[in-house]
């Protein structure tokens, strides 16, 4: 009886803590837009310097947010291979099992760009960070690819989820070709990052309050850089993109199978 009551109390606490985390995330984004980014915008510097400051602010904010979720018992996490990240001109491609993936990645990468869904540009809680960090909209696919390539070739780092949206647990990976096209056009460093989450939570179509029976564990495994020569030298470019996209899809399918029991 005592253990049952204890489990129920812990569940209730984690439900409250999860709701508090989401509230803090939204409130933090709004406060950054109202109080922090207006100050940064009037500081001298080029647009690139201002974007750099914005990305650092988002990085530290997300670092604090992940720390909050860990401290109040919502999640645990671990990272292997972090030393392979934070390099200029680096394209980080990752799978996307849970809602907090991008937050977790940016919390560990001091300056990184990413692709943001068009509708989030109109979200008052997200608009400030999105605009001031120079994130790229997916509204126009052609323009999106060009902006990503330019960013990488200028020495910036970038995070992309080739799936384009969160994974559906138990279903095969289905990658869009945008990430492969960006990687081959930019011809810079490509580093795969495998994320695994157990128990599964905050997946596609799940609400924030549908929490698992215990705190979730998020693991980040940074792989070795992917050599592009074989694909760069393939003609025509459309075939090269298709082959590289299939390579990425196969790689992450294997990695997902490898880590599917991780943390149990």
Automatic annotation (TrEMBL):
Residues annotated as transmembrane: 12-37, 57-77
Keyword Membrane annotated: yes
Pathway: Lipid metabolism
Gene Ontology annotations of biological process type: phosphatidic acid biosynthetic process
Single GO MF descriptor: 1-acylglycerol-3-phosphate O-acyltransferase activity
Keywords of the record: Acyltransferase, Membrane, Transferase, Transmembrane, Transmembrane helix
Domain Phospholipid/glycerol acyltransferase: residue ranges: 90-198
Protein name per the record: Phospholipid/glycerol acyltransferase
Organism: Candidatus Methylobacter favarea
Lineage, broadest ranks: Bacteria, Pseudomonadati, Pseudomonadota, Gammaproteobacteria, Methylococcales
